[in-house]
Write a structure and sequence with these properties.
It comes from Wuchereria bancrofti. Helix content is 9%, strand content 12%. The protein is mainly beta. β3, α2 and β4 form a beta-alpha-beta unit. The protein is globular, with a radius of gyration of 13 Å.
C-alpha cells in the first residue's frame, strides 16, 4: 500500500486520503502512519479493516464509506480511539 522508502515522511502525516483507489485490503505498511489522526478510505473495495489499523493509536476519524464491508464483528477492539466512523454505502446488516 505505501512505499517503504522515505519512512520518516510517511510517519509525520496527520491526515491521509486513500479514497477512490480500488484498494482491496489494508496491509502492514499502514503502520508507517503512526501519527495519523484522520484517514479516508472511502470508495474502495475493502471487505474488512484487517488487523493493521489497531496500531494507529492516534487515529480518531476513519471514513470507510462506500466499500464492500458486511461485518463489524470485534471492530471495537481494533478501533479503540476512533471517535468518528463513517460507514455509509456498505452492506452492513447487523452491528455485533
Amino acid at each position: 500500500m505505501l512505499p517503504i522508502e522515505n519512512q520518516e515522511k510517511w510517519s509525520s502525516l496527520e491526515e491521509v486520503d486513500f479514497s477512490f483507489n480500488e484498494l482491496e485490503e489494508i496491509d502492514e505498511s499502514i503502520s508507517l502512519l503512526n501519527l495519523v489522526r484522520k484517514m479516508n478510505l472511502s470508495h474502495n473495495l475493502l471487505r474488512s479493516i484487517g488487523d493493521h489499523l489497531q496500531h494507529l493509536t492516534m487515529l480518531t476519524e476513519l471514513n470507510l464509506s462506500h466499500n464492500a464491508i458486511e461485518d463489524l464483528d470485534l471492530w471495537y477492539m481494533k478501533l479503540g480511539n476512533v471517535k468518528r466512523l463513517y460507514l455509509v454505502g456498505n452492506k452492513i446488516s447487523a452491528l455485533n
